[in-house]
Amino acid sequence: MPHNLSEVIDGCIAYIDNKEITAVELMQYVKAPDFPTGGIIYGMEGVRNGFMTGRGRVVVRAKYEIETDSKGREKIVVTEIPYQVNKASLIEKTHHLMAEKKIEGLRDCKDESDREGMRIVYDLKQDASAQWVINQLFQYTELQTSYGINNVALVKGRPMTLNIRELIMYYVEFRHEVVVRRTKFELAEAEKRAHILEGLLIALDHLDEVIKLIRNSDTPEDARTGLMEKFGLSDIQSRAILDMTLRRLTGLEHDKIKEEYAELMKTIEFLKSILADEGLRMQIIKDELIEIREKYGDERRSVIVHSAED
């Protein structure tokens, strides 16, 4: 079931800041499902059950206004319908119910939607009450629809029904695992590159000896072995030196390699600090979530209206 991205991220950040936060407290941030087609969430009891237990029911109604034409006749204008409800089917069903006289008080139902947005118009008979007609429409058509909440998810390979706190908790655990694995990968790649650069710097510091050794070697294998034995280089470093182009022997290229190595060592130190500090990892998760919220977050589209039961 869709929720508002900004609200969910706010809930995740609230959990990261306070791991003891309860499901009830998280509802201050994640207020209810939020549907892309808008509509009105009618009543919070089912939503609350869904957030507390993982199972519940959300009742969604169309958003409507009551207008009066020049002749003083009222009409109901629907501007938003519940999620996944087909507009054409809705109008067709309404006409069918009017023909069978299951819905009374309506003269016509027509679609006046355009590029500006949705507009389904229900023309009322002269003596009909708009609220009476809309209540019939809620009862017999999909202008009021309910959606079941069933938060079943695989947790470590096992299906579990999760409440709002558990959903957020396991998501944050997943993001934490992603940060750890990503950091380990980046660290391994940085250390590989640093190892090669260390070899290149050794070669550049002993440039004349390296060139002489390579020129006096009969084969590339002899040159590689000679570099390893004379300068204590690894196989990877020796191969990198033999693959080095002539332009990298200039003083300017030497300085570039030194700069790259210095930056790489800072990166390695930072990556190691991430792996050593859970608080820093959690801050990275928060920063990434905030970045997503600022880039993609928007206002809630589905309005929440409390029912008499609430």
Keywords, separated by commas or semicolons:
310 residues; alpha+beta; four-stranded mixed sheet; four-stranded antiparallel sheet; elongated
What's a quick, concise take on this entry?
With 310 residues, the protein is an alpha+beta fold.
How would you sum up this structure, described in words?
- The structure is a single chain.
- By secondary structure, the protein is α+β, with helices and mostly antiparallel strands.
- It has eleven helices and ten strands.
- The protein has helices at 5-17, 23-26, 45-53, 87-99, 130-140, 164-205, 207-215, 220-231, 235-242, 251-276, 278-296, and strands at 40-42, 55-61, 63-68, 74-80, 106-111, 120-124, 144-150, 152-155, 158-161, 303-305.
- It has a four-stranded mixed sheet.
- β3 (63-68) and β4 form a beta hairpin.
- The two termini are 22 Å apart.
> How many helix segments?
11
Q: Give me the side-by-side strand order of the main sheet.
A: 7-2-1-10
Q: How large is the radius of gyration? A: 33 Å
**What coarse outline follows from CA principal-axis ratios?**
elongated
Outline the biggest β-sheet. Answer: 4 strands, mixed
- Classify the oligomer: single chain
Estimated share of beta-strand residues: 15-25%
Ends: how far apart?
Answer: 22 Å
Q: Structural class given helices, strands, pairing?
A: alpha+beta
Total number of strands? 10
Average pLDDT across residues? 94
Query: How much helicity do the residues have?
Result: 40-55%
Low-confidence stretches: none
